Amino acid sequence: MISYYQDPYCRRIALIVSVLFWTGSSYGADSIPSYQDNFCKGSEVLHLTRPIHPGRKDSPVFEFNFRYITGSVADLPTIIFLPGGPGATSIFMGGFQDVGLGIPKSYPLVLTDPRGTGCNGNIGSKLPDDAHSTDIWADDVISIIHKMNLKNYIIMGHSYGTVLATVVASKIQKDKNRRPPSAVVLLGTLGHAFTKDSEQYEGLVNGWEKLKQLLSPEIVTQLSQSRLPLGISSEGWGRFLFKGLVAGAGPAIPPEERLLEQLQVLNSKDEEKIEKLKASVLQAASHVSSQEYLKASRPIWCRELARFDNTDLALENGNLIGFINSNFCDKMSLDYPYDSAKFNVSAPIFYFQGEDDYAVTMAQAEYHFHGQEAAHRFFVSVPEAGHFSIAALSDCISPIWRSISLGGVNFQEALNSCKWKTRVIVAESHSL
Question: Is 331 a domain residue?
């Protein structure tokens, strides 16, 4: 039986997913019906009633949708997946959670779309800015735990989803009527708000400088001209490099899809390869975040994560340049900067961090790790992996999840069974 570690098609899915979760939903406001027709119907999609403003007695309510997929093996913990963004969706992932999310199909799975996006997009236009915060989104997730009466479950977050997972785990352990999660799994972990504006893109800039050292002088020269290759703008090349740097170059990424290999085509005389590269760059260049995504994302981003939005990049004189959109957070300020150390988690925490994750740097994840002294912590560094590092460990994912389900029992042995070797740090819990 071939694993997706070897299957080029499935590895391509992993690439798509890893980039999609960082860049946000690609479904525009006018395509919400298309998303909902494809992913939001059927017996797996469940509903509950949520107030627009939790805590207000007179708050209007709306129908909040999530997806529950039964596992193929009894008595395994339910995994609740929280995507990044903030505002990215995950309900559409139901058909290939093993391939895209690194979650074996033997486990029950809850997939979520935040309020205002994806399967919860219909309510988006009715949600004011103050109906969006990590605390409110955490209450939405906790309401799923209550509705499902979950007693054995794991919270898994990716990118911004690690912020949400941390807050959910911290809040629910204070509820004496509910059991806390048996574990928290974090991928590409944010430890705190961006303390300086350039921090949002410094990792990407450093990643590009590292990659340039591996390119031939001829290709570097082409990418340093005022007229860039393939007739594509500096902004278009910037978005393409952003996408490739976020994906990384671990074993889950097909060789022909890795950024280094793609750029080497610039020295090729093979017209078919050149046209394929051009199509890939143009596709990345044309990406625009949907309005529903931005409406849900902006209040959290601007009040909790950063002063500006400056994740748009351009390639100028061979350098990757970050641009600050000073109008993105207009009339909003960073009043509630996220700090993971303020949200104590007692459940075991498993960190998976790509060593080539240029979207969320190693320093961010390490800050979170060192601040959670009440938890038994396992920090896994994955060489060459990007923003969705667990995809590199697909051949050993079953023993990894088995160990996570048991609180980390035989965790090192599970990692030793992986073809792709990792580095692990374990920290015991301490009473606070």
Answer: no
Rg, C-alpha atoms of the chain? 21
Other CB atoms closer than 10 Å to residue 63's CB: what's the count? Answer: 12
Contacts (Cβ under 8 Å, ≥6 apart) of 56: none
Mean pLDDT of all residues belonging to the chain: 86
Give the E-state strand segments of 341-422 in sequence order.
Answer: 349-354, 377-382
398 bridge partner residues: none
H or E element that contains 163: helix 160-172
Residue 268 half-sphere exposure toward CB, CA atoms < 13 A: 16
Q: What is the DSSP letter of 84?
A: S
Q: Work out the angle between the directed axes of helices 199-212 and 234-247 (0-180°, nearest 10).
A: 90
Amino acid identity, residue 342?
Answer: K
C-alpha–C-alpha distance, residues 330 and 298, integer Å: 10
Calpha distance 186→69 (Å, rounded):
21
Task: State how far Cα 111 lies from the chain centre.
Answer: 13
Structure tokens that stand for 286 in this block: 């044309």
User: What is the SS3 assignment for 147?
Assistant: helix
- Asked if residue 142 and residue 17 are part of one domain, the reply reads yes
pLDDT classification of 21: cutoffs 50, 70, 90: very low
User: Is residue 332 in some structural domain?
Assistant: no
How many other CB atoms are there within 10 angstroms of residue 343's CB atom?
A: 20
Alpha helices in 68-133 (DSSP H): 97-100
In this predicted model, what pLDDT tens digit does every residue of 184-217 receive, in sequence order?
A: 999 999 999 987 767 777 888 888 999 999 999 9
**What pTM was computed for the model?**
0.91
* Furthest CA-CA distance within the chain: 68
The backbone torsions φ and ψ at residue 111, rounded to the nearest 5 degrees and listed phi first, read -110, 140
Q: Could you tell me if 81 and 188 lie in one domain? A: yes
Average pLDDT, stretch 370-376?
95
Residues in the chain: 432
Residue 244 near residue 258 (C-beta atoms within 8 A): yes
Whether residue 385 lies inside any domain: the answer is yes
